[in-house]
Specification:
Helix content is 30%, strand content 44%. It contains three helices and six strands. The chain is of the alpha+beta class.
Length: 105
């Protein structure tokens, strides 16, 4: 499966638990919606993913990608209840950076 470079980078940094590099995949004013919360801007996104990495140790394994809609389906496995899960990552990408990400079940 061929993923856009920025999504490949996001998966790689998630699997390395590299919160700073993960946040660098996003635009300065990007927005992430996950588990009923919205995180605004790179600094807030980095705090959110760092906390998640420490608590859940979640890895991503891409299973499908809808190029038309920019939706990645990935198996997420970690130290959280219900692991592993298949989640959908809805991206808005512009200028080589993620502008918005919404995670759904």
């Amino acid at each position: 499966m061929q993923l856009p470079n920025i999504i490949s980078d996001l998966v790689k940094t998630q699997n390395e638990f590299n919160s700073a590099a993960y946040a660098d995949c996003f635009a300065e004013d990007a927005q992430v919606s996950d588990e009923g919360k919205t995180h605004n801007g790179k600094a807030e996104i980095e705090k959110w993913i760092d906390k998640s990495n420490k608590e859940n140790k979640a890895t991503m394994e891409p299973v499908d990608y809808d190029e038309k809609e920019d939706i990645l389906s990935a198996k997420i496995a970690g130290s959280f209840p219900g692991s592993p899960l298949i989640l959908k990552f809805h991206f808005k990408i512009a200028d080589g950076k993620i502008q918005a990400l919404k995670v759904t079940g």
